[in-house]
């Protein structure tokens, strides 16, 4: 890890398994993350990306998730269906933890507060 972090500018590659990449590493020398296979658990996938975003990162970071699309079945390809499922899971978890905001919620709360006084 130290060799990778302290290498001279240029092209370097460090290949890590998803579990290793999410194990308290600092990889601010990296600016590209490529997920060669997707994980069903989005939290683990996010942990794989985090080491390159830590304090000290001074380059833009790009995350890639290559997907195979087979012409014979098009949008029914496994990689595309898995990607859709993962994005639906991410969207659902975010909306459960942080409810969608609407102006009517604030207006109702404000009106109820004024009426109570």
From TrEMBL:
InterPro entries: P-loop_NTPase, SNF2/RAD54-like_C. It comes from the Bacteria. SUPFAM superfamilies: P-loop containing nucleoside triphosphate hydrolases. This is Uncharacterized protein. Gene3D superfamilies: P-loop containing nucleotide triphosphate hydrolases. Keywords: Hydrolase. The keyword Hydrolase applies.
């Amino acid at each position: 890890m130290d060799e990778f972090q302290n290498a001279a500018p240029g092209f370097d590659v460090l290949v890590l398994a998803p579990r290793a990449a999410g194990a308290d590493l600092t990889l601010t020398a990296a600016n590209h993350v490529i997920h060669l296979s997707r994980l069903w658990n989005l939290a683990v996938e996010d942990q794989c990306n985090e080491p390159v975003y830590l304090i000290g990162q001074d380059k833009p970071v790009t995350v890639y998730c290559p997907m195979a699309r087979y012409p014979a079945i098009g949008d029914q390809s496994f990689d595309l269906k898995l990607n859709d499922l993962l994005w639906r899971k991410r969207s659902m978890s975010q909306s459960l933890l942080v409810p969608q905001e609407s102006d009517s919620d604030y207006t109702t709360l404000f009106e109820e507060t004024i009426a109570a006084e």
